[in-house]
Amino acid sequence: MGVLQALVGVSEKASRVARLCRGEEPLCQLLVAEKTGPERNSRFQRDFKTLADVLIQEVIKHDLGQQFPELQGHIHGEESNEFTTAQGATVRVQVGSSPGDTAATLRRVLEPHHEAAELLAAAAHRAVTLHDATLATVELNIPTQDIAIWIDPIDSTNEYIAGREDVAPVEGVAPEGLCSALVLIGAYDRRTGCPVIGVINEPFFRRHPETGRWQGRYHWGVAYGETRLCSLNPQSSPRPTPRVVLSRAEGAAVQGALRPLCGEHLLFAAGAGYKMLCVILGLVDVYVLSVGTTFAWDACAPHAILRAMGGGAVALAGALRARREGDKGVPPQLVYNRPDDGAVGAERWVNRGGLVAYAHPQHLEDVLEALATAPGV
Ligand code: 2IP
Ligand code: CA
After folding, report:
1. Mean confidence (pLDDT) of the chain
2. Residue 42: pLDDT over 60
3. Is 155 a catalytic residue?
């Protein structure tokens, strides 16, 4: 199996674990305990959320590392696998060689919820079979020793925990809710930092009309050398009036600067990955973020898919600075191999100064022009 098929396969397994945590009573109870439970549960609930993230990330690391030993040590994620239990002990969560091994580690963290530990361990070890004839035929020439991986096991964790299903979309974009919780797996070139393969999995795409069970779906894209491949249809010609999606926390200056450009087509959504997915799906044309609240693991996978479709993602602050200094050239794409050595922890990998993700280069140009000339941005 090739690396693309492997990335899609692990995203499916991750998605299954994410659904399991919401769908199986012993797990879901832990996930939503904060809302209903007594004070002592409130701490534990946060711990369980972290555990779901950590386990998903470890499953991805384990499965990819087994299939491609040359990737071991080059698979990075948002979460550390050092896990602190409700009692304050440190446990290193790892996928073991058997479901029994994995369950034993999980039991230590989940004590006294043994059933929850068994369910999670079983899901972590259950093999995934892809029924995707198109994907099966894709053959890539990407040497796996040249790439590294960023994982966001569950992007939009707040929406994942809150689990709202009844959010009405606005122009096809969900302002919040469970559908914005995504699994993001991106591969980048170790040397250049360019994103080369992206997989986005939507664990909560829709409920099956008859069974009522959650169904997921996934999207992938490849942008390597001259190769451009994607599970989605290529974008049509750019809309004359671009649609822009923003974080609900985006400031008034950016909103004000973009209104003349997109009028009422200024939309709001949760989740950095989900907003980039909206661009990929053509629901909007651009995602603008003016602050450093996204990280390499949020952007790598969607960015690779955007590149596969002819779009991209650039750093906003740098692009505006260059423009104001008279450089109207196309700004450099974000890269994923350069930590900020002056920072610590997650901040080493922040997309500092925000970003613009776009499907059509013309819309990047329009947005930068609007923002560069606006007061207070
Ligand atoms: C978060 C999450 C937030 C998002 C933030 C991400 O990732 O997606 O929703 O903020 O940028 O880093 P916003 O919704 O304002 O865009 P995680 O949930 O994995 O911490
Ligand atoms: Ca995230």
Report:
1. 92
2. no
3. yes
pLDDT tens readout for residues 339-350: 999 999 899 999
Q: Are 218 and 11 in contact (CB under 8 A)?
A: yes
Q: Could you say which DSSP state residue 98 is in?
A: S
Pocket of ligand 1 (CB under 6 A): 78, 152, 155-157, 247, 249, 270-272, 293-294, 298
Which among 235, 201, 21, 194 is positioned nearest to 122, based on CA atoms?
21
Rounded distance between C-alpha atoms, residue 2 and residue 94, angstroms = 24
The stretch 48-56 carries a mean pLDDT of 79
- Catalytic, out of 101, 132, 146, 157: 157
Atom 19, ligand 1: which residue's CA is nearest? 155
Q: How far is the CA of 247 from the centre of ligand 1 (A)?
A: 9
Distance, in Å, from the CA atom of 280 to the CA atom of 137, rounded to the nearest integer, reads 23
Distance 139 CA to ligand 1 centre (A): 33
Name residues whose C-beta falls within 8 Å of residue 281's C-beta, 6 or more positions apart in sequence.
172, 232
pLDDT at res. 49:
67
Mean pLDDT of 354-369: 97
User: How far, in Å, CA of 102 to CA of 139, rounded?
Assistant: 33
Closest approach atom of ligand 1 to CA 250: 15
> Degrees (nearest 5) of the Cα angle 308, 364, 278?
55
pLDDT band at 33 (very low <50, low <70, confident <90, very high): low
Backbone angles phi, psi at 272, to 5 degrees: -65, -45
Pairing of strands 266-269, 244-247: parallel
Name the residue of 293, 316, 352 to mutate for ligand 1: max ligand atoms within 8 A of Cβ: 293
Q: How far apart are CA 30 and CA 194, in angstroms?
A: 39
- The mean per-residue pLDDT over the stretch 239-252 comes to 96
pLDDT exceeds 80 at position 47: no
